[in-house]
Amino acid sequence: MNRPRAYTESRSQIVRARLEVLFSFLERHGFVLGLILVTGLTLADDAELSVQWGRWLKEHHAPNVLIGAIFFFSGLSLEKETLYKGVLDLKAVLGALSLIFLVSPLWALALAREPLGPGLTVGLFLVASMPTTLSSGVVLTGAAGGNMATALLITIVSNSAAVFVTPFLLEFLVGQTVTPTSMELHKTSLMITLVALVFAPLALGMSLRAAWLTLSQRIKGPQPSTLNTFLVLCIVWIGVCGSRHTMVQGVHLLPLVVALSVVFHGGLLLCAFLMARALKLSVGRREAVIFMGGQKTLPLSVLIQTAVFPQYGEALVFCVCHHVVHLVMDGCVLSFIKNFKKG
Q: Is the pLDDT score of 248 beyond 90?
């Protein structure tokens, strides 16, 4: 029996609409779902069929290659033309940087006074020492009606400064609460690694952006942000593979990890709102401080954990869990800001 043409077209429109809803959902939440899926499946692999490949990649320095690629693609995505406009709002930039490199470590140090255990303490310090995210913070700032140029400048400055600041922050934080004999942090070696894997690829990507735009118009392919999402998931998978045994033993700590993530990021959000108010930032300027000052990049923390603190699998659990939690919390903040502006 032949269906009427109008019926067929109606069904096609319904299917198309549902696919659009699905793609829209995956675009907004695909990364978080990917993190949960990759981590969960790896931890559930009792036979370690896939885990052995992840460990092999880790032993052959695959995370270093991936982190370099992530920052290179991030450089391709950074609009230098827009960046210059961010220089005009130095008050907001300095406010966000003080949150990233001053308030965040001090807040982590205060929380570490509680008996968290060395693994969670190291994870907390890793996250606290990180620069802001490479893309999600800028996107959230724009979605909230904030100045994306300011957010972009904060991204570049904080990630570049992290090459030199993060090793010192980590050494200071770890030295305050974790037994010195339990780990050794080589600042010079870490700095050289960060220069090679963060600063150099980022600068190279920014210098090649014009050529990339010309090439991408001729050859349709995945965008740098899409590639970065995949690469970050790969880094997380390799990190979980390397620390699987320790993570499985510490899975009972997950409620504490979630609670600590909420408290840590919630404290940063509160400080960000207070900072924006203290600096008397107007609507459109304060959003960059709120989102960029509290967000923390994930791939760099995973890289340092697997390279410097591999014995602390709980630290990796905190890094991944905190990233999921802070994206969800910032999504709620975005909704609040939008509703407040409408009201």
A: no
